Amino acid sequence: MRRRLFAALYDTVNKGSEAAGMREERRQLLAGTEGATIEIGAGTGLNLEHYPEAVTRLVLAEPDRHMRRRLGRRVDALDRAAEVIDAPAGQLPFPDATFDTAVATLVLCSVPNQEVALAEIARVLKPNGRLLFIEHVRSGEPKLAKQQDRLRPLYNLVGCNPNRETLAAIEASALRVESVRHGEVPKAPRVERPMIIGTARR
Asked: Is the pLDDT reported for residue 4 higher than 90?
């Protein structure tokens, strides 16, 4: 019931942030996608409209059935050629070196194990393939970071961990960070605002 409600409200809850700048952040980042592309935790499909013609194959991996149902409807509405699959970040059903690009936006906060998920992303990327990411992360401000720690159990009810040091996890993986920019998720609760946007290379 909780997951169904979260999926039903997801677009509405994020509408303000999307209109205030997140949609443009997605558009700019995803302009760099090309070739065979996999999106990890595609959710309701907020990235879908931003994939350019340079993407020759688009796989949308989403393990939550409620999200996946809404994702499928958006794929149909936009008449976009895409493969919607039931797969968690840590178990992608593809051979090594399948994809040119992987995309993760606001999803590495919710995977059960970041190390496993990033290892799996690296595995399915071709040599020199790229991960494009937008993630909300642990604050560098100690007072806010403590608040994120306190609220984590509440956020865990919908699978989110607002206090993860995601950039450090990417740097510790088999991926090499190419670029990263720190910012804030617009119009989000304060504990969700610290954000990183960037790319990493296999």
From this structure: no
Cβ pair 140, 194 in contact under 8 A: yes
Task: Supply the pTM of this predicted model.
Answer: 0.94
Give the model confidence (pLDDT) of 14-58 as tens digits.
Answer: 898 999 999 999 999 999 999 999 999 999 999 999 999 999 999
- Total of domains in the chain: 1
The answer to whether the beta carbons of residues 199 and 133 sit under 8 Å apart is yes
pLDDT digit string (tens) for 136-182? Answer: 999 999 999 999 999 999 998 888 999 999 999 999 999 999 999 99
Alpha helices (H) in 18-79, listed in sequence order: 23-30, 65-78
Where in the sequence is the domain holding 135, given as residue range(s)? 2-201
Residue with tokens 């994020």: 14
CATH number of the domain encompassing residue 31: 3.40.50.150
CA-to-CA distance for 61 and 63, rounded, in angstroms? 7
